[in-house]
Write a structure and sequence with these properties.
about 270 residues, mainly alpha, single chain, 15 helices, about 75% helix, MetI-like fold
């Protein structure tokens, strides 16, 4: 064994250990979802001996998870798209302002990130009731688009500031207007960052329970997270049924992640090397 291999062996072992800790929750979900309640009570962490698939079918049909996942797709996708559109417009506008004014406005927007969600959940619900948007998917989309807009504006502004001024000035010299510059110059350059923002927003909205539980209280509009939370009772809880529902609710977020994986990696590393 060479000296380099001796030095790298502890690093490899540490990487393998971290990978195992990451994979263990997935193993636990799959293993538990294939057990009966009796087998889980007898051996919560042991390997499943007689896999069953009824937990998935029961969660899909009896719980109505098929409609709830569709609601989550509409709310998460609509909220993410709305937030990206608003954030892109505001971020590009702030990046073109003078330094002090842009920084002042941006600091005010970033200040909204310090407000904890429980503080605004009740005022937000009262506002939705007055607007007639409570227990509607449209109201949830608008609410999520506004809630995550400060983060989106901050991320978009910091990226647009990194675009060289010479590129924008060259576009203006060629006779392009503001909208054409944004469409043909700014947006193509910012696709990785915007894709990263969209994926992050989609996952955050999908996994949110607090605002979905308050804004979407009727069974006809509830999201997957709200439906799954209904499986947790005070005196009755089936862990195999719960994990089966969680596994099915994970599939859309995993598909979105793998679909935008290349753009997500580019967006996360953009600006790291100049």
């Amino acid at each position: 064994m060479t000296r380099r291999q001796i030095v790298r062996t502890p690093m490899y072992l540490a990487s393998y250990a971290i990978s195992l800790t990451t994979l263990f929750p997935i193993y636990y979900l799959v293993d538990t979802a294939l057990k009966t309640d009796t087998e889980y009570d007898r051996s919560p962490l042991g390997l499943v001996h007689h896999p069953i698939w009824t937990n998935f079918s029961n969660a899909w049909t009896q719980l109505g998870l098929d409609h709830d996942i569709l609601h989550s797709l509409v709310v998460s996708g609509g909220g993410a798209v709305l937030c990206v559109l608003v954030s892109t417009s505001a971020g590009f506008g702030l990046s073109q302002l003078s330094g002090r004014l842009s920084n002042a406005v941006l600091m005010v927007i970033v200040g909204f990130l310090m407000i904890t969600p429980p503080v605004i959940v009740i005022p937000l619900y009262v506002l939705m009731v007055h607007l007639g948007l409570a227990n509607t998917l449209l109201g949830a989309i608008l609410a999520y688009g506004a809630l995550f807009a400060p983060f989106g504006v901050y991320m978009s502004t910091t990226f647009f500031r990194e675009i060289p001024r010479e590129i924008l000035e060259a576009a203006r010299i060629d006779g392009t207007g503001v909208m054409q510059t944004v469409r043909f110059v700014v947006l193509p350059l910012g696709r990785p960052v915007l894709a990263t923002l969209g994926v992050l927003l989609f996952v955050w909205i999908w996994n949110d329970l607090l605002f979905a539980l308050v804004l979407l209280q009727t069974p006809g509009t509830r999201t997957a997270m709200v439906a799954i939370s209904g499986l947790i009772g005070q005196y009755n809880l089936s862990y195999p049924a719960l994990t089966a529902a969680l596994l099915m609710a994970m599939v859309p977020t995993l598909l979105v992640f793998f679909a935008f994986q290349s753009r997500l990696q580019r967006g996360l590393t953009m600006g790291a090397v100049k």
